Amino acid sequence: MESNHAPPKGGTVARQAAMLCQDRVFRLYLDRRRRAKFGIEPSALHDGTHNEQDARDWLIAACQINSRAELDSNPAARQTFRIIRNRVNHWRAKEKGEKSP
Q1: Is the confidence at residue 84, as pLDDT, over 70?
Q2: Rg for the chain (alpha carbons), in Å?
Q3: Helical H segments across the chain, by residue range
Q4: Are 71 and 63 spatial neighbours (Cβ–Cβ below 8 Å)?
Q5: Tell me: the pLDDT tens digits for 17-31?
Q6: Which of 4, 9, 50, 57 could be joined to 27 by an S-S link, Cβ 3.0–4.6 Å?
């Protein structure tokens, strides 16, 4: 029997968020987003700087939650996550299009 003190288990949206944080392209998006936002040169913030934990930390801060598990029960956080995921997917498609001949 489970304890009532256990943190909430993540559902579908929390799993999607975990997969996003594991995605190398999402972490690359965060590298390039930070450089653009703060005017940082690529030599000072290399591609591949953000790791999975950095991505998780950024995502929970952006969604104003303490854990990705909250995404399944917090409508405002879930909406923010969907906006972020859509922006990343748009960026991914744009990047892929620029690399095609």
Answers
A1: yes
A2: 15
A3: 12-22, 24-38, 52-62, 75-99
A4: yes
A5: 999 999 999 999 999
A6: 50
